[in-house]
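Annex B, item 7. Sequence and structure tokens for protein A, then protein B.
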Amino acid sequence: MISIPTASLASFSQREEMVDQYHAESKILIREFNSDVDVNMVRKLESDCEIGTKKMLSIFTNITSDPLSRIRFYPLHVMLVAELVESRELVGAVRGCIKSVGTLSGSILKMGCILGLRVSPTYRRKGVALKLVTAVEEWMLRNGAEYAFLATEKGNNASKNLFTIKCNYVNLSSLVIFAHPITSSHINHISKDIKIEKLDTDLAISLYKRISRVKDLYSLDMDAILKEKLNLGTWVSYYKEEGCWLNSLSKVNNQQFMSNEISSGSWVIFSIWNTCEAYNYKLQVRNAQSLINYFLATLDLERIFPCLGMSVNGSNICRPFGFLFLYGIHGEGENIGNLMESIWRFASRVGKGMKDCRMVVTELGFGDPLATHVPQTTSMSCIEDLWYTKRLSSVGDDENDKPVMKGEMGNVFVDPRDF
């Protein structure tokens, strides 16, 4: 009997894995998505990439009805797919877009965003994701992007390792996603002392342009965002006793508006994005009863399911749901705590009348002053989000580049199109 040292076995296994990876990479073609022939294969790929397995909790963002739904809001966008040369099967996909953003230092950056990276479970750890990321970065660079940008959950170690270790991305910012369920108790009461008034779109655009001066990172095309049909509107919450200052704003010209103080009182501005119309989110639990004890030890299902109006005791749950996304939240004044609570209640009322709307969600940077004023309830869930960036082009001002590459972006504008 011949004894083979453990180290030799490990080395052999590693070499075998490298050979498998080489063959997998050599047989894969990265090309642009063809809407005429690829839709069904993308549908299958998205289904295969559901989070979890058929026997476990699965939260799935279903965008197969429109594979370009997350990027078509941008004039410059692309979707790339990874195709097996022999069988023509699609085993991966990535979406990318390019937009211009401004920074607190006054610089303007052309930034490419990576959205919706998917790799078939049977082809993971074979270099497919790396090839897709490299290809979309090359597309961004050809189209003038100076930086690449992406977001991932803090707990997604595979994604973090791919981008930081293999692709040389650096941390740009840390944020937290707040999710509140839409329940009757949450929407019953808004203080009679508080007024919530809808803004004219042009006035909202001017107001956001002024607000952007205090943001570390913000989108330059607020007019396109606010005029998009998925945007339900922009409102301001303020105290009635401090008077209605909105009428006076509409009477001043834009130059005066940008240079003068808006109000000496307390106020909060916010906009609402309707994700119910953008994507279908599905939560699936099969054989739930046999898994409840396990998941209760790892996930707070008693908080997750009430958010969606579902029962933990169900043996088979599969229901589409959506949420309203609060964005552009900015407040000024000494007493904004109650105003922040009022906008959550207001958004919940809006969502209550919409089919399959289950939650109100927002995302704020750790450096955003309003992050500490988000109303805390026992039913609220929080997810930590990490933003990463990479410099693609050597052209640019290194001084303006420093805050970006050092991850000093704490108070950022979250673009609802990226969420």
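Protein B:
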Amino acid sequence: MIMNQRLPMPDMDGCVTFPLTRPHAVLLVLMLLAAAAVATAPASKQQCHSGDRAALLAVKASFGNASYFVSWTADIPCCHWFGVRCDATSSSATATGGRRVVSLAIMRDAGVSGPVPGAAIARLTGLQELLFLHVPGLSGAIPPALARLSALTDLTISRTGVSGPVSAFLGELRALRSLDLSFNALTGAIPASLAALPRLASINLGRNRLTGAIPPLLLSKAGPEAFLTLSHNSLSGTVPAEFAAVSFVQVDLSRNALTGDASVLFGGGRTLLVAVNLSRNALSFDMSRLEFPERLASLDVSHNAIRGGVPAAAGNLSQLMFFNVSYNQLCGELPSGMASFEVYSFRHNKCLCGAPLPACQA
């Protein structure tokens, strides 16, 4: 797993000084343990590939040697640099000149600024995970050089200042399984090339400024479990009919401008579906005809133009914890199992009645 800590700021002399608050104390212990592991491990198991080391130093230089990279020094083996993880085996270290870097994580640091150094990162040819998280100073477009990372399985650039399009070249990352570009300033359409990725099972493009339609074959090759978040954009058009064949576990299309029928996302055969959020769109379909899977735990279809009534089977869902159909055009008596939910979950409909709403009139 990628470490989720950051190093303290060095002083002008390069020495690390800080009061021992609890987070700093924990970090100090981790640093001491890492140093002890370095001291006792054979040299062949400590050092990363010389080419990867040079690439990492180029990444560091591109960010102006920010304090995040304080551990990236000559006296610490590069496989132990903060945010860097090498492969677990060292059997080929002698032949290749060191272990390959498989993960690079830069996160939760406002001192790291500038564009994504694509050319330097692309030199990490064994990279499987690349993560930029909570790095507000990261800017510019996603560089095309990242398409050369043929082994990349997980790409996260989230909560940054990255802008520009979700470029079509991402469709060249054939090993990609997870793509998270959420909470950025990305614009334009979702490229259809993402649908061609044979292993992609999780996409999060939420909280951007994307427009246009959802590619109809998105996640069509996801396999038994698919996760999709496109919320808080300006997407338009309909929910693709092709989504009927996608085995979703979670899907969030909320806060867009989608229209038409979204019933393709439901059905008794969707045994893995646990969460659906379609709120704040302009969807219109008959809810009374929906079949809800038994494992459904969360459903939010509020602020649409959905008609019909709440299906009786909804009251029998034993794992349902959140349910919101407010601000629609629903009518009829609520199933008895709905009495445990708050009134706000059903407000502003055409003529819903029954607990927790007032009783239906005879």
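Comment on protein B: The CA atoms of residues 4 and 107 lie 8 Å apart.
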